[in-house]
Amino acid sequence: MERGAILLVAAVVVFVAPVVRGTSHLSFANDTQQVNVTRAGCGVTALCVDQPGACDPAGNGTCLFASVVAGPPAAPNGTDLYFKLRGTSKGYVALGLAVNATEGTSELFLCGQNSSHGTFFFRTMQRNNTNAALTPAERRVTQIRGLVRGDVIECEFNVPGVNATDTRSSHATTTFSILLGTGPLNGSTLGPFNVSLISGPLNVADPSSNVPTTPSPATNATATATATPSGASSVLLSHALLLLPSVLALSVTQSA
Ligand SMILES: *[C@@H]1O[C@H](CO)[C@@H](O)[C@H](O)[C@H]1NC(C)=O
Ligand SMILES: *[C@@H]1O[C@H](CO)[C@@H](O)[C@H](O)[C@H]1NC(C)=O
Ligand SMILES: *[C@@H]1O[C@H](CO)[C@@H](O)[C@H](O)[C@H]1NC(C)=O
Ligand SMILES: *[C@@H]1O[C@H](CO)[C@@H](O)[C@H](O)[C@H]1NC(C)=O
Ligand SMILES: *[C@@H]1O[C@H](CO)[C@@H](O)[C@H](O)[C@H]1NC(C)=O
Ligand SMILES: *[C@@H]1O[C@H](CO)[C@@H](O)[C@H](O)[C@H]1NC(C)=O
Ligand SMILES: *[C@@H]1O[C@H](CO)[C@@H](O)[C@H](O)[C@H]1NC(C)=O
Ligand SMILES: *[C@@H]1O[C@H](CO)[C@@H](O)[C@H](O)[C@H]1NC(C)=O
Ligand SMILES: *[C@@H]1O[C@H](CO)[C@@H](O)[C@H](O)[C@H]1NC(C)=O
Ligand SMILES: *[C@@H]1O[C@H](CO)[C@@H](O)[C@H](O)[C@H]1NC(C)=O
Question: What is the pTM of this model?
Answer without folding.
Answer: 0.78
